[in-house]
Amino acid sequence: MFLALREIRHSPARFILITTVVFLVSYLTYFLTGLAFGLASSYTEAIDQWDVRSVVLQKNANGNSLASRISTETLEQIDMDEGEKLLLMPTVINLPDAEENEDPRKSIFVFGLDMDGPLAPDVAEGDFPANQHDILLDGSLRAHGFQIGDTLSLPEFDTRWTISGFTEGTRFQASPTVLLTVEQYREILLPELMPNPEALGANILLLPTTAKNEDVYTDRDLEVMSLDEFIGELPGYNAQVLTFSLMIGSLIIIISFVLGIFVYVLTLQKKNIFGIMKAQGVRTSYIVISGAIQTLLLTATGLFLGLILTAITAVFLPETVPFRIEPILYGAVTGAFLLFTLVGGLFPIRAISRIDPIKAID
Question: For a FRET experiment, which of 65, 290, 334, 346 has its CA 20 to 30 Å from that of 130?
Fold first, then answer.
């Protein structure tokens, strides 16, 4: 420890350079981590609020909730005490304060669910719908000018709705949601979409536990999926998670190699000094441990600065950027950084062990 600190004080410029490299790479990694987690969360925010274990879809839908259509007749043949119905569809909404160079519409999902059941969201502002034409909006839409009491209409429909409240964290596939009751959805929206609205019972069923008897569903051309399987089938979800994971992993490995090269070059430059130390009886293990401690100190300093800058950046990012800091995930990334950079810092062990004190003194 003493040797590591003394060397840093003796040659601060070179170690500031190494710390700066760690700081910049770690900041990029932390930022990508927050962006990746924010994007993934925006895909599943609504799902994370469902207290369910399994999802039932039409078998021919191939895991796609939007393509699933479960008929009312099929629902009548199933014990509905076991699950909750969910109706959903993608559409767009007109933005009240769209700028001249901004798209005046935004893609959304409309959910029809039981507001008195386990799927009911928490209302962060306002109240649950009390009238036939009251609706709840995802809180992210407040940034686009929507307020409680405003009236709005969906471009494909004639009905005008009144905003009764806002929810928080109910986005689905990175899009805000508009929440209706099942009755509003079936009695007001569906008649304008299809000639026989009574035929559609639900798009998907949500089960609080694993299905008691899957044959009840499979015999009716339905498919039971776990919640994780359902999330994995969301369009683009696995692709973006895998892409960001590879980028983050690559950055961590790259910085470990960069640090290893830095430390190796510094070791070669100090070959004579290490030879004199070995001639004085200093053990090779002591020199190696001092180098490892030095690498950890520089890495920890760079990571700390990277975390601070990431937190500052998060404060100034607009709400439209899906950025989210998750302490557990950041802890895992930090641990991986420290582990891999320590491995990189041990690269010079062989070079140190082969130093001949007599040749170094000569």
Answer: 65
CA 109 to chain centre: 20
**The model's pTM:** 0.76
Helix (H) or strand (E) holding 84: strand 84-94
The residue among 282, 277, 281, 287 whose CA lies nearest residue 351 is 287
Instruction: Work out the angle between the directed axes of helices 271-279 and 284-316 (0-180°, nearest 10).
Output: 140
> Residues 337, 338, 344, 345: is their CA dihedral positive or negative?
positive
* pLDDT mean over 264-272: 66
How far apart are the C-alpha atoms of 170 and 99, rounded to whole Å?
25
Provide the 10 A C-beta neighbour count for residue 5: 13
Q: How many Å from the N-terminal Cα to the C-terminal Cα in the chain?
A: 28
Query: Tens digits of per-residue pLDDT, 286-341?
Result: 666 776 777 788 888 889 999 999 999 999 888 778 888 889 989 988 888 888 77
The sign one gets for the Cα dihedral 191, 194, 199, 200 is: negative
**Residue type present at position 345:** G
